[in-house]
């Protein structure tokens, strides 16, 4: 009887521990969320680049916890018309997603990223595509840096809905535009990587995706002068309680606003707030099943931007066009020459600013180039290193236009040993 008694005690202890862990909520639980890959499949990408990006996505998926109760993945192609390779509900394991990515064929056509972003929005929030309500949403956009249609407005719509946006550019494109399109901070969500070096960011990007899918506490994002969005981990369920969300200016705690939300909610957006103001936020879980501590956060709204003065038609400034093309030449182990096609519009640039820094991290440097010149030589570089070079044109209006490109220095050249001078008379005739 003793063995059966010991077994019964062990099982009872295991059940008690499991029940206790479920009530407390385990921080090590697998993250839940919907992950959508937006893949540039247009004719601007070579077949070789497409195959390397496809290989990179497979390696990335291999490091993510995909499956029922964890992450779900979908893939949308950027082409003349967006094409959904597979919805969230189609593949239930990481291995199946990897096989589907390997089988994805390049679509060719134009680079209509804006249209593809609209399709991505449908996929991320449509239950018919397998999207799950109330779970974090992450978009990973892999691009060669260009688009045939506007990207900013549809991308901002996604971020306003709480989507975390990561961008992987293979070294071309406008740094300023891509930084604005990625979630903040850009240094964490935007990667410029050569197509042959994509593997170096796999571990970092996978960890960032998991972190975005599993927020550890109440946090704010998409902060503007009049509002911000809140997100928190799933602390309750729909039938275990509800949340009371409180918001008050730090200087006037007695003027709190309150919002009651269901137990399956994981986010809320506050709007109509005052600019440049500190707000105290409290998330209070109310439950008769278990005790969950409130979470607190202080958020400061951005200063209000001055409304641009509307110029009369006759005062409208001439068109300001930035650099249209960057050319890298005369590459040496420690220097290279950067040239660009100057602005062709009627507004002349006051000058140019060239910023450059190693793609794999390091201090950025800058060179000022006066108006009338469209090239400069970058000195003091490291041999065998990939750099991101950004050329920015500054205009009289105070606005700037920029373009970025990748440049690589070759490995150190072998030192050349000069040939010794031939002895007098060698190889010639004597007197």
Automatic annotation (TrEMBL):
Residues 306-318 have a biased composition (Acidic residues). The keyword Repeat applies. Its main location: secreted. Pfam families: fn3, VWA. PROSITE patterns: FN3, VWFA. One of its GO terms (cellular component) is basement membrane. It is found in: Secreted, Extracellular space, Extracellular matrix, Basement membrane. Residues 214-305, 322-412 form the Fibronectin type-III domain. Keywords: Basement membrane, Disulfide bond, Extracellular matrix, Glycoprotein, Phosphoprotein, Repeat, Secreted, Signal. Promotes matrix assembly. Involved in the organization of skeletal muscles and in the formation of neuromuscular junctions. PANTHER family: COLLAGEN ALPHA, VON WILLEBRAND FACTOR A DOMAIN-CONTAINING PROTEIN 1. Homodimer or homomultimer; disulfide-linked. Interacts with HSPG2. This is von Willebrand factor A domain-containing protein 1. It comes from Rousettus aegyptiacus.
């Amino acid at each position: 009887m003793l063995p059966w008694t010991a077994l019964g005690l062990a099982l009872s202890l295991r059940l008690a521990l499991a029940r206790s862990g479920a009530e407390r909520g385990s921080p090590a639980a697998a993250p839940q969320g919907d992950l959508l890959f937006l893949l540039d499949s247009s004719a601007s990408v070579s077949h070789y680049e497409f195959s390397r990006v496809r290989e990179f996505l497979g390696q990335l998926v291999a490091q993510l916890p995909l499956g029922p109760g964890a992450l779900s993945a979908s893939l949308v192609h950027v082409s003349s018309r967006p094409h959904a390779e597979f919805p969230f509900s189609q593949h239930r394991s990481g291995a199946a997603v990897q096989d589907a990515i390997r089988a994805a064929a390049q679509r060719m056509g134009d680079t209509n990223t804006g249209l593809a972003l609209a399709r991505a929005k449908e996929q991320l929030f449509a239950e018919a595509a397998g999207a799950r309500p109330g779970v974090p949403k992450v978009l990973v956009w892999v691009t060669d840096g260009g688009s045939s249609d506007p990207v900013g407005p549809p991308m901002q719509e996604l971020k306003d809905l709480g989507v975390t946006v990561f961008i992987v550019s293979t070294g071309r494109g406008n740094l300023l535009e891509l930084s604005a399109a990625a979630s903040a901070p850009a240094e964490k969500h935007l990667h410029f990587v050569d197509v042959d070096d994509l593997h170096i960011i796999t571990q970092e990007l996978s960890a960032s995706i998991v972190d975005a899918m599993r927020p550890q506490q109440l946090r704010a994002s998409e902060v503007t002068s009049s509002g911000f969005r809140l997100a928190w981990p799933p602390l309750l369920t729909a039938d275990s309680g509800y949340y009371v969300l409180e918001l008050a200016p730090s200087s006037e705690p007695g003027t709190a606003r309150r919002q009651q939300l269901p137990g399956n909610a994981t986010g809320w957006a506050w709007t109509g707030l005052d600019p440049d103001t500190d707000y105290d936020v409290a998330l209070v879980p109310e439950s008769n099943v278990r005790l969950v501590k409130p979470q607190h956060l202080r958020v400061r709204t951005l200063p209000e931007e001055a409304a641009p003065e509307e110029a009369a038609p006759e005062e409208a400034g001439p068109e300001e066009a930035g650099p249209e093309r960057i050319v890298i030449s005369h590459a040496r182990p420690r220097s290279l020459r950067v040239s660009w096609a100057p602005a062709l519009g009627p507004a002349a640039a006051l000058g140019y600013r060239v910023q450059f820094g190693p793609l794999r991290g390091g201090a950025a440097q800058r060179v000022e180039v006066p108006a009338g010149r469209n090239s400069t030589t970058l000195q003091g570089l490291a041999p065998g290193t990939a750099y991101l070079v950004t050329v920015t044109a500054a205009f009289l209006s105070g606005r700037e236009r920029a373009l970025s490109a990748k440049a690589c220095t070759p490995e150190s050249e072998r030192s050349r040993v000069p040939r010794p001078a031939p002895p007098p008379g060698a190889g010639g005739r004597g007197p």
